[in-house]
Design brief:
The structure holds 2 protein chains of 2 kinds. Chain A is mainly α. Chain A is built from 15 helices and 2 strands. Chain A has a domain at 80-133 and 194-315: MetI-like fold (Orthogonal Bundle). Chain A is 73% helix and 1% strand. In chain A, helix 4 (83-116) packs parallel to helix 9. Chain B has helices spanning 3-44, 46-49, 54-59, 71-79, 82-113, 117-129, 138-148, 154-179, 182-190, 195-206, 208-224, 227-232, 241-252, 257-292. In chain B, helix 4 (71-79) crosses helix 14 (257-292) and helix 5 runs antiparallel to helix 11. Classes of the chains: A mainly alpha, B mainly alpha.
């Protein structure tokens, strides 16, 4: 990145008459405007304008048809007063917390061992771990049902075959205490591939000499990971932590398709509440308020990302 | 201790710990293999069902199929109109590619080569878009589409999809064009090529690697989309593959599992095949975004 910044903008040859130059500048500006127009038009129509609208709508009581009534911050107040919203809010934060605590160490372990042991097997395995991440989420959700469904699901079929009654009797998707973890397992399956690939690329950038000298000093692999590799990829680890957290705030596909947010509110998320308020109950104002809350939360985490970046910017 | 003694001591230590090192290596590789199986096996699950009749499925869902029959595929194809679904999804993918890639390439080029106060500010405006969650705009987007007649049309789906892809790919194209030598553009300029000619004849062909990545990843993203399609498409004839898969259970219930599995195998095939044959590219593209975003 640093190298690219040094490349200079092409400059027109100097020493021409002023009128000529002005004409050229005019050409250049028209060209720039024309080339920027499609991208900016897309963003203004489908992103910036709707964002402003979301903020405005969140202050109204409206169903999208008929007159809208200005009600100030009542939509927000009602949301925080409802049990469903509070559960969803806690769920996404818990989800964010556990994805940092469980998925990141797992991804780091896989990436680290793949890089450290260079054999034919690990060379082949590298490509495998990202496979789950290219599955469409509707399919991942279906696979989740195949695995966790009562009676015909993989786990309960296997438990019945082995006559492990305790395992066969667990309702992975219907028990409010367990459903969250069944979904979390599916999400770990689907979303960890990216972190693995990202960590691998960063661990590989640690110079070979550092590893060799660590070996000469008698450091074993654990010590190498603990005292050299982890500190050296601390910045990528934080980036992944932010990405996972922001991703958790937006969680929709898997919980919606596997459990529909239930049983009761056990696996509901902010995005599910937005969808239900907006497109089931037709409470546009309240749905927009959920959108604003998701946006503000991601903004907080994104600002955190940038402040990390500034602190250790030279590492990248 | 002189140098020789140090190496001697080191190699003695190395010998004694070599067996341990090997044992740990084997344990770790076995764990890696088990985890890799945990990734791959679920993807194979539908294949247990797709060749079975409903009766076979209800008696022994997880036995190996006794006979290869393709009737489930045929029936699923007819039942949820997979042909129509694939065609719709293909249109959405092509539309998303056509909307995202040229706009991002052009904007990225300007941001890389025509740097001024104005373009810097505009670049930051685009960069901000990278961090906007699509959930933030769902409600107004839906209202807006209804007002301008884009509701329940495929362009109504792929245009916003493209808008949300543009910031990311603009960033990628920008850093790609900045990495290209500036002398090339100048040489073309001296040869009399205008701004447009320089871009289309010299710079864009040089950015082919970025373009291949963009096309691949935008395709995969559009193919897999669920949330936007769910909200913006209501007409069953326009349902994409993912919507059809998700609707299947509601329409037919669990007693048509073999058909459902067959349909999902078809729906997942394109992205899986693309990954199997192009994983190098796909991983590199994913990383390009992460390292530079």
């Amino acid at each position: 990145m640093g190298k690219a910044a040094a490349v200079k903008t092409p400059q027109l040859s100097m020493g021409k008459r002023k009128a000529e130059k002005k004409k050229r500048d005019w050409h250049s500006i028209t060209f720039q405007a024309l080339f920027l127009l499609p991208a900016l038009a897309f963003l203004i129509i489908f992103m910036y304008y709707p964002i402003i609208e979301t903020f405005r709508t969140s202050l109204y009581q409206t169903t999208g048809f008929g007159p809208a009534r200005f009600i100030g911050f009542q939509n927000y107040a009602r949301l925080f007063a409802s049990e469903e919203f509070r559960t969803g809010f806690v769920n996404v934060l818990a989800w964010a917390f556990w994805s940092v605590v469980i998925q990141i160490p797992l991804a780091f372990y896989i990436a680290f061992t793949l890089v450290v042991y260079k054999t034919r097997i690990t060379g082949f395995l590298r490509a495998v771990y990202y496979l789950a991440s290219v599955m469409p989420s509707a399919i991942t959700a279906m696979l989740g049902r195949f695995i966790f469904a009562p009676t015909f699901g993989v786990i309960s079929s296997l438990a019945n075959r082995l006559e492990w009654k305790w395992l066969a009797s667990i309702d992975f998707l219907g028990n409010p205490n367990i459903a969250f973890w069944s979904l979390f397992a599916m999400a770990t399956w689907a979303y960890t591939g990216f972190s693995i690939v990202y960590f691998m690329a960063n661990i590989e950038q640690i110079p070979m000499e550092i590893r060799e000298s660590a070996q000469l000093d008698g450091a074993n692999l654990w010590q190498y990971a603990r005292y050299i590799a982890i500190p050296m990829v601390a910045y990528p680890i934080r980036i992944i932590a932010i990405i996972s957290t922001v991703g958790s705030l937006k969680l929709f596909d898997l919980p919606w398709l596997i459990t529909g947010g239930g049983p009761v509110y056990a696996t509901t998320t902010l995005a599910i509440i937005l969808y239900k308020q907006g497109f089931v109950n037709w409470q546009y104002g309240r749905a927009a308020a959920v959108g604003v809350i998701i946006f503000l939360l991601s903004l907080i985490f994104t600002i955190a990302q940038f402040s990390f970046q500034r602190k250790s910017g030279e590492l990248d | 201790m002189n140098h020789y003694a140090a190496t001697e001591a080191y190699s003695r230590k190395l010998r004694s710990s070599r067996r341990w090192t090997l044992a740990i290596k084997i344990i770790n590789i076995v764990i890696l293999i088990i985890l890799a199986l945990a990734v791959v096996l679920p993807i194979l699950l539908p294949w247990f069902f797709v060749f079975k009749t409903r009766l076979e499925f209800s008696y022994s869902p997880w036995s190996l199929p006794t006979q290869i029959r393709w009737t489930n595929f045929q029936e699923a194809w007819v039942a949820i109109k997979i042909g129509q679904g694939l065609l719709n999804t293909l249109w959405v993918c092509l539309g998303a590619i056509a909307g995202t890639v040229p706009a991002a390439a052009m904007a990225g080029y300007i941001f890389a080569r025509y740097r001024s106060k104005v373009t810097e500010v505009l670049f930051y405006a685009v960069l901000v878009g990278y961090f906007i969650p699509v959930h933030m705009v769902l409600i107004p987007l839906y209202q807006f589409s209804s007002r301008v007649g884009l509701a329940d049309t495929l362009p109504g789906l792929f245009l916003p999809m493209a808008a949300f892809g543009i910031p990311f790919w603009t960033i990628i194209y920008r850093s790609f064009f900045r990495g290209l030598p500036g002398e090339l553009a100048e040489a073309a300029r001296i040869d009399g090529a205008g701004h447009t000619g320089t871009f289309f004849r010299i710079m864009l062909p040089l950015a082919n690697p970025a373009t291949v990545l963009a096309v691949l990843l935008v395709f995969i993203g559009a193919w897999s989309d669920y949330l936007l399609s769910l909200i913006l498409i209501n007409n069953p004839n326009l349902f994409t593959m993912q919507l059809r898969i998700a609707q299947f259970l509601n329409q037919y219930g669990t007693d048509h599992m073999p058909r459902y599995a067959a349909a999902s195998v078809i729906a997942a095939a394109p992205t899986l095949l693309l990954y199997i044959f192009g994983h190098r590219w796909i991983i590199r593209g994913t990383l390009a975004g992460a390292l530079k975003g």
